[in-house]
């Protein structure tokens, strides 16, 4: 079992390859479309340093709790958002923030894969439908930023313990599991379809 601790250093993830299963412990921030647009298109940097950390494409559900626990919020559920929604902005987001791990549902495209190769970053898939499990792997919310974006779009900072399983879908070499799988299945299509057509 491979456990990644934040802050993540290059040597921590350099040997990982697509298909590897890992778990994350340490600081985990959530941020999806609105956060990416704010950073990339508006040039507004997050109010804390994301360098070496993990960004989770997710829209969590939280509820307020009385102080002094955490920052006044507790996590109810946190499930992954489809990462492809961030494809247009992810490469610039990586370059600007220095994140080392991106997490979401499904794969990402060539632009993100190139950024992972250039900056030594990985993208991982968190299983869909496991939002309550995800909340159970988060010890506490430590900060809430950009709440004006709304609960699912705000930038939530959390402390996670053994968050996963995470499947590496893009490694630091830029190998993209979803792209490679698509090529493989496309190459097999002709062979599989031919005997069916011959029987028609």
Strand order of the largest sheet: 2-3-6-7-9
Do you know the CATH topology? fumarase
Radius of gyration: 18 Å
Low-confidence blocks of residues: none
Mean pLDDT: 92
Outline type = globular
Helix/strand/pairing category: alpha/beta
Q: How many strands in all?
A: 9
Helix fraction? Answer: 25-40%
CATH superfamily: Fe-S hydro-lyase, tartrate dehydratase beta-type, catalytic domain
Distance between the termini: 49 Å
How large a portion of the residues is in β-strands, by DSSP E? Answer: 25-35%
SSE ordering: EHEHEEEHEHEHEEH
Major sheet description: 5 strands, mixed, barrel
Q: How many domains, as an integer? A: 1
Number of helices: 6
CATH architecture label? Alpha-Beta Barrel
């Amino acid at each position: 079992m491979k456990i990644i601790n934040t802050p993540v250093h290059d040597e921590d993830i350099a040997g990982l390859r697509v298909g590897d299963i890992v778990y994350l412990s340490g600081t985990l921030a959530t941020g999806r479309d609105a956060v990416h647009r704010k950073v990339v298109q508006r040039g507004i940097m997050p109010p804390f340093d994301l360098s070496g950390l993990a960004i989770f494409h997710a829209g969590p559900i939280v509820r307020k709790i009385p102080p002094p626990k955490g920052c006044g919020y507790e996590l109810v559920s946190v499930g992954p958002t489809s990462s492809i929604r961030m494809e247009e902005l992810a490469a610039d987001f990586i370059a600007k923030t220095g994140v080392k791990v991106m997490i979401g549902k499904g794969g990402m495209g060539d632009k993100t894969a190139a950024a992972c190769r250039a900056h030594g970053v990985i993208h991982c898939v968190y299983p869909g439908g496991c939002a309550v499990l995800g909340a159970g792997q988060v010890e506490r919310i430590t900060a809430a930023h950009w709440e004006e974006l709304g609960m699912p779009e705000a930038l939530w900072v959390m402390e996670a313990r053994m968050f996963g399983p995470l499947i590496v879908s893009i490694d630091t070499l830029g190998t993209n599991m979803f792209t490679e799988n698509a090529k493989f299945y496309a190459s097999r299509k002709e062979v599989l379809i031919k005997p069916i057509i011959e029987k028609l």
